[in-house]
C-alpha cells in the first residue's frame, strides 16, 4: 500500500485543468494550504474566484478522480474536498436591469435545429405587435441567423446615435417590431467561425449597446440546443420566461426535454412558459378538412408537456404558405385572412396569459405592467 504524502496529492491535482484557462488548479493557486492526511483519508479546500463559478462541481469531481487515478483507488476523498471563494457572495440586492425600458423578456428556444424556432419567433413578434404591444426581436442564433431574411432586411445598414453620453445601435423597425441580428454585421456568405466567448460578447453588444427603448415584449430567438450562449443570455438578462419549440417527431422531443431541463437548472432557473407544437400536421390546400400527422401525433407532445407540467401553448400546422412568406420577408402573421396568422395570434394571446400568470405569482415588488397598448 502506497504511503500518502502532500507532494503525491499535489502532483495528482496538477493533472486537473481549470476549463478555458489552459492551466492546472495547482499553478492557479486554487489548492489551499490546508491539506490534511489521516491514514487513507485526504482532506483539503479548493478556492474559486466567485461563489457563482459554473465549474465548481466539475472541478471538484475532476480533483477526486485525479487522486483516485494517480495516487491510489482506495484514498478516502469523496466529500472531503471543501469549496471556498475569494470573492464573498454579493449582498441580496436587486441589480439594475440591463434593459430598464423592457417589461418582459421571452426566450424562444428549441432543443435542435430545423423545428421552426425562428419562424415561431418572427411570427409571434409580429402577432404581438399587431395586438398593439411594443415589441423587439433579437436574433441570437449566431451561427444561423434567419431574422434578416424573414423580415427582408438583409441589405439594411445599421446606424448609431448618441443617447445620454453613449453611442447606441439603432434597431431596424419592420411591421412594428424593432429588430437586430448578428446576420446584419457579418458576411452572409461566410461561416461565423467564432469561439463561444466571441459569440457571447457579440450578443452582449447587441443587447447592451443598442437603443431598444421602451418595450412590452423583447423576444430572443435563441440558438438551438444548449450552450454557453444560453448561459450568457440568462446571466446578462432577467428573462421572464422561455417558450420551447418542437415538432412531434421523437428525435425532436428528445432534444426538447433537454431544453426544458436546461432552463430548470439551478444556475439558469428560467420559467418555461410552455411548448409550441410546430408542424403538428399537414393539411393539403385542396382538402382543408384533412390532417396528416407526418412527424407524429399530438399525444407525443402532450406526454412531454404532462411530464414537465408545462402547457402546450399552440399547435401550428405544416403549411407551405408559412415558408413562402418567410422567404419573401413578410411573415405570414401579417395576413389577417390567413388561418396560419390566426394560429400565431392565438399563440400571442397564450404567451400574454402565461406571462400574466407568471407575474401574478411574483412578489408585488417584482411584478411588471404589460397594460400598454
Key terms for this structure?
single chain, three-stranded mixed β-sheet, 13 strands, 21% strand, disordered C terminus, 373 residues, alpha/beta
Write the layout of secondary structure elements.
Blueprint: H1 6-13, E1 36-38, E2 41-48, H2 56-70, E3 81-85, E4 102-110, H3 117-130, E5 135-139, H4 147-150, E6 159-163, E7 166-170, E8 172-174, E9 177-181, H5 196-208, E10 215-221, H6 228-236, E11 241-246, H7 250-263, E12 272-282, H8 298-308, E13 312-318, H9 320-328, H10 339-360
Parallel strand pairs: 2-3, 4-10, 4-11, 5-9, 5-10, 11-12, 12-13
Antiparallel strand pairs: 1-2, 6-7, 8-9
Structure report:
- The chain has 373 residues and is an alpha/beta fold.
- Helices cover 32% and strands 21% of the residues.
- It is built from ten helices and 13 strands.
- It has helices at residues 6-13, 56-70, 117-130, 147-150, 196-208, 228-236, 250-263, 298-308, 320-328, 339-360, and strands at residues 36-38, 41-48, 81-85, 102-110, 135-139, 159-163, 166-170, 172-174, 177-181, 215-221, 241-246, 272-282, 312-318.
- Helix 1 (6-13) crosses helix 2 (56-70), helix 5 (196-208) packs parallel to helix 6 and helix 7 (250-263) runs parallel beside helix 8.
- The model is unreliable at 365-373 (pLDDT under 50).
